[in-house]
Amino acid sequence: MDTIAGKSRGAGSQLRRSCRGGYTLVELMIALALLAIILARAVPGFVELIERQKISVTTADLLTAIQLTRAEAIRRGQRVDLVPADGVDWSSGWVIFIDGNRNRRVDAGEVVILVHDAVARGIAINSAMTDNSATYIAYAASGRTRTNANSQTPQFGHISLSLGAQQRRIIVNFLGRARACNPLVEAACG
Fold first, then answer.
1. pTM value?
2. pLDDT in tens, 140-155
3. Disulfide-capable partner of 80 in 33, 73, 120, 174 (CB 3.0 to 4.6 Å)?
4. By residue range, what is the domain housing residue 111?
5. 188 in a domain, yes or no?
6. In a domain, 11, yes or no
7. Considering the domain boundaries, does residue 170 fall inside one?
8. What percent of the chain has pLDDT over 90?
9. pLDDT tens-digit profile of 41-80?
10. Domain count within the chain
């Protein structure tokens, strides 16, 4: 009987030990509450990081397109244009091409150098250039910008990009050189 009682006592204590191996509902609720607090503090920073990356990549892509337009104009010895893909909004993407008839649209037979897809949703792009009658940047064979109105009038100004609290600006100077900056950080970004 002692052996049976000993065995049953041992089995009972083993049974109690196996039930204690998990977590109680209160412990799980506390862990979930702590996780929710940590996530609530981390998510806004993560969203800001994603927005900063999106606007940085878009700014770099557009700046590279402007620089490529200039380089192609010099290399080819003729005017090369950079225009929004839809003709109006840079957010729709952009096209670098040789605009033979200067209508700022890609027509049959015109040489297309680069096509860039639409930018990430939510990014707003606005330009304030010398010739605001249309949205474009054109470079002559000399590597200087030109307006459609006059082949001697430079096209200069800036293109502003924004997404949430993030802002960037691409400045095209009088000589046609472009640079990017952050107006929230740099005072000389105007």
1. 0.77
2. 999 999 988 877 889 9
3. 73
4. 27-181
5. no
6. no
7. yes
8. 58
9. 777 778 888 899 999 999 999 999 999 999 999 999 999 9
10. 1
CATH number, residue 129: 3.55.40.10
| Domain assignment present for 46 | yes
Higher pLDDT, 4 or 132: 132
Cα 2 to Cα 16: distance, rounded to the nearest angstrom: 21
Q: Which residues pair with 84 in a beta bridge?
A: 94
SS3 annotation, the chain: CHHHHHHHHHHHHHHHHHHCCCCCHHHHHHHHHHHHHHHHHHHHHHHHHHHHHHHHHHHHHHHHHHHHHHHHHHHHCCCEEEEECCCCCHHHCEEEECCCCCCCCCCCCCCEEEEECCCCCCCEEEEEECCCCCCCEEECCCCCEECCCCCCCCCCEEEEEEECCEEEEEEECCCCCEEEECCCCCCCCC
Tokens standing for residue 179: 């640079």
Instruction: Tokens for 4, please give them.
Output: 């049976």
Report residue 20: phi and psi, to 5°. -85, 0
Q: Supply the pLDDT for residue 41.
A: 78
